């Protein structure tokens, strides 16, 4: 019960008898305050209507059974939440569940629901999916309506699903997005591997997972030189947009966690010049990713460079900083990105990340199903 309580903050029963799901607390459900995991929003006005994505899944016959826990105000990577409790990582309980969509990932990993909905501004779907060993998709930016999500304005944030299987991930997308048309692969996909610096155990897990994909020939490999610049630029944009949404809560300092408050106040110091430079990086990086996708179906790289830290290790910021190095760049570019869970030889969580052309979300899901079938 404690695990369920920490993953699901409010039990609900909305909708039909179809697939069950939980919805991250920063997505509006009518009649309830959208508190985004923060005591500072506990007494805010209840939402007048459901978020668009909530309406979509209800119309598709799904049943919402609860609201999912999250890192406060979606501004953190560990999933630790002193106000609502920290969700337990079901398979690796000594390790962080990941953030910010911690409850969405742990609820699926624990088998509490068929799928879940989270949000991803800088890795907040794909990182907890990796930590908890489940499948997850950050769709193409703008594909799924953000109306009713918090913060209201973002040039990075995407709403997407978690599931225990690639097939269920595809089903989740068909219910969240009426325009989603599932694909069936008739032949092996063409993949290009992006060479990155990762821990040997992570690289080895990726090598093993891709062995079947390489059976018909060598997989082209290259470096994506702008990856680190895009990682840093993404943080600049996140800081500017998060401060714009929540600086008033940080200034009021009522009910907000000290760590999140400090991060928001620091983010508010982001300059216009820094933002302009980050937008320049965005343009160049987006073009670079598009170019690498011209002759392949998807790019492939690890989702994280290291295994998730333990809860104790995560007290040290240096253990947390690298976790979104390979994730955040694709928020900046807006390309769809999907995580296939892996396990290292030592039995720790890792992930294979697929990145596709904008709008090719269905192809990414089909590739994930193909990989999972091998």
Automatic annotation (TrEMBL):
InterPro entries: Amidase, Amidase_CS, Amidase_dom, AS_sf. GO terms for molecular function: catalytic activity. Coiled coil: none annotated. Residues 21-174, 200-365 form the Amidase domain. It comes from the Bacteria. Pfam families: Amidase (PF01425). Hydrolyzes indole-3-acetamide (IAM) into indole-3-acetic acid (IAA). Belongs to the amidase family. This is Indoleacetamide hydrolase. It comes from Chelatococcus asaccharovorans.
